[in-house]
Amino acid sequence: MPFGLDLPTIWAFIIAFAIFAYVVMDGFDLGIGILFPVLPVGRERDSAMNSIAPVWDGNETWLVLGGGGLMAAFPLAYGMILSALYAPIIAMLLALIFRGVAFEFRWRDPGHRAAWDFAFSLGSIVATFAQGVTLGALLQGIAVEGRNYVGGWFDWLTPFSILVGLSLVIGYALLGATWLIMKSEGSLQARCYRLAFGLGIGVILAMAAVSAATPFLRDAYWQRWFAWPQVLFTAQVPLLVAIATVVFFWSLKRLHHYTPFLAALGLFALGLIGLGISLFPYVVPPVISIWDAAAPDSSLKFMLVGAVIMVPIILAYTGYSYWVFRGKTGHEGYH
Amino acid sequence: MFEAFDAVFLARLQFAFTVSFHFIFPSFSIGLASYLAVLEALWLWTGRSVYLDLFKYWLKIFALTFGMGVVSGIVMSYQFGTNWSVFSDKAGPVIGPLMAYEVLTAFFLEAGFLGVMLFGMNRVGKSLHFVATLAVAVGTFISAFWILSANSWMQTPTGHLINAAGQFVPNDWWAIIFNPSFPYRLVHTVFAAYLTTALVVGGVGAWHLLRERTNEGARVMFSMAMGMITVVAPLQIFAGDQHGLNTLEHQPVKVMAMEGHFKNYPDGAPLVLFGWPDQAAGEMKYSVEIPKASSLILKHAWDAPLKGFESVDRKDWPPIAIVFWAFRIMVGLGMLMLALAAFSLLARVRKRLYDWTLLHRFAVAMGPAGFVAVIAGWVTTEVGRQPFTVYGLLRTVDSASPLAAPAVGASLLAFVVVYFIVFGAGVYYILKLMSHSPHRGEEGPQRDHPVRAAGITPGPAVAESIAGGKEV
After folding, report:
1. B282 touches chain A (CB under 8 A)
2. Is B81 on the interface with A (CB under 8 A)?
3. Residue A66 belongs to some domain of the structure
4. Per-residue pLDDT tens for A247-286?
5. Using the beta-carbon criterion (under 8 Å), do B100 and A306 form an inter-chain contact?
6. Nearest partner of B140 among B70, B231, B38, judged by Cα
7. Which of B162, B422, B427 is the best mutation test for A, with the most CBs of A within 10 A?
8. Is residue A82 part of a domain?
9. How much is the ipTM here?
10. What range defines the domain where residue A303 resides?
């Protein structure tokens, strides 16, 4: 392979990309669900819902690609992680059911709209929290022996995993608020500017807390971040976070429509890079690396052909679909 | 709670429950997506507004069905890892890529164009909207292709090697994808989806004809559905027979369970119509049978020998009664579908398609029959694969995650409660939509006026006037 890249490494990057695409795109969908309780019933809620109704399904498909891709490329890790994190994964799946059906159900049943709005919101919050807990639990490491998980079914529950869960809830809420700044007008937009300010502060605090706690989880993470000379490289991450933060608050103050969302995306991208620095090349820390978990080359090659051809096509028509529904969304609804 | 249960058994129950619920939605949406594409094509071709009205009528139902299919499907894509981690580790290198291809070539296509299909008529114009509908319909078929390939490989595994870690390693992708049972299973399942949809559409049309014989929309949908059933029901019976012969060749033990053959029959096996398969005693009780007819069906000769369970090690027996009865439910319903096809053909020839009350009542009663038959067929083939996950090579007991029974029991309970609440409500909303008679100027999922000529970008309004989308 040129550039020292082998198939497991390429697949690790493809799956990281799928996870990033999911976090960004379903992040703002789920964020709107998280913000739902503070949006007034009626126009503002309908308008918020309409801004994502045509695209949420495609956004959620990245989660299926993340799961399916992990099973195909790193089957050992897929089985270990999902069985070790059984409770939060099942909670996420159940929560996504409530969130997903609410899009249609709330329009079909005006008499129970409040109930489906509640399901939409609670589903979004629980799904996000569970995703954060999953991430936190993965970072703190999973007890494996041979090819199996050997821990208990509540090992994932620690203060750190709860912290990451809460952080992700605040983070998705920020994505939701900035998405709505972009897609709405009037009172909803004004409300989202105010929300985004508070959430922005929350996200910075959350990132600081998680970043401060992570190096203490394992010595390997400490080495990764602070050992000389790579500290020269890793120190760029907090620097870029600081820049993105400044851009974010500056653009909020100037009432920009698009920049706050883009700056929030920047923060998420930096968070993912930070995660990659901590984890790589381990997929199930502390012992299973991507090479231990990788499927045979015959599997990875076969899929790579499909991914190389299909992912650009998918991005193209996903872009088209966003283009069709561009601009500000009305409240009277596509429905 | 749940300590008394076997964790693997609970995991199997959970998989069976979640996949059965899930399968209901795509078995309807695969056919419905194609039906919508046909309706839109007919509207574009003939300009008759009744087709557009029907399109919008069924589009609302499609939106609900598809949404429920998506959320119940995500559960499936993660459940291999949560509950079947050893299976995922070992078989993941083979079936993982097939499922990844399903996501890459089908799920994104469906999801990407669904938004345009549901809400975009005024924004993209008629032709592009039709392209979106076609993309969704094609996506549902591609999805069936990959997932049935993966499933069929578990039934008739070929094209792989086994490495030192006990993993199945792909050796010949062509042999894996087009494994011996796949073409048969694909045809049989896709026909089943078309039949299921036609029965629902026909049932709804008949229901409205019983109330209002002159309703144009009801007439058109009833006629189209009955025509579809008349063509597909006989084809499906033929396809099912061929699939059965294929199963006899590759999974003879499954056929023993379907037929209820415990003994070896060296000179012609009987066709057991009914009976009680007693697995513990190893015999068929109270059996009503036609001598030698099974050999005639399966081997095309009265005296052809067929083996029974006495030739198979007991530890390789599937749960026989479940397979035996599920198979009879499926075949019985298939025969009723054939009867409906014949009845409707008679009515059509006599020009009484729209006023033969008995036919309409029969069609209403058969409305849900497709779902029952699909689930029964699925149970037949999946339970018939037991006690293996990868037939003959990997046992179900050796496939499960190392989870304790209380964990699996709790999640199973949660799935049951959530599915009944959520999908119960969804089915109720679908029935409510179906109870409205189709009428002129049907509303789609979208309101018919454009959603404000969007603030900063007048694009949609321009596109609309170019496309002449005003008509809707």
Report:
1. no
2. yes
3. yes
4. 999 999 899 889 999 999 999 999 888 888 888 888 888 8
5. yes
6. B70
7. B422
8. yes
9. 0.88
10. 9-213+223-324
